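Dear support,

I submitted the protein below through the web form. The confirmation email said the job was done, but the results page showed an empty box. After a refresh the structure appeared. I'm attaching both so you can tell me whether what I see now is the final result or a partial one.
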Amino acid sequence: IAMRQPWNIYIITVDKIVTEVSRTYNVSVEDIYSKKKSSDIAFARQVAIYVVNNVLEMSSIEIGKNFNKDHTTILYTVNKIKDIIATDEIIVVNNQGTYSIKKWNYLDTY
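What the results page shows now:
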């Protein structure tokens, strides 16, 4: 008789999302939460806000409080990243941590 394994429960939080985005985009967690406006940090922050919006059931006001931003900034950011995704553009990050947005071509994957 097989023994039933207990469920592993993983609670997703804003901080966990920000930590993963910071690792992925090679910027510090502190920078994502900061008011710094350099393009690499701002973009990582926008991605983090987009993921938080899509994964956690939080209002734009609640998300704004976490990132020290106005709720209208949160709405603008979410729509900006949605537009990038909707136009089949991809985010390319080079080994220096800078990014560019280009049109996705399925031939690039083969």
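Response: this is the final, complete result; the empty box was a page-load delay. The radius of gyration is 17 Å.
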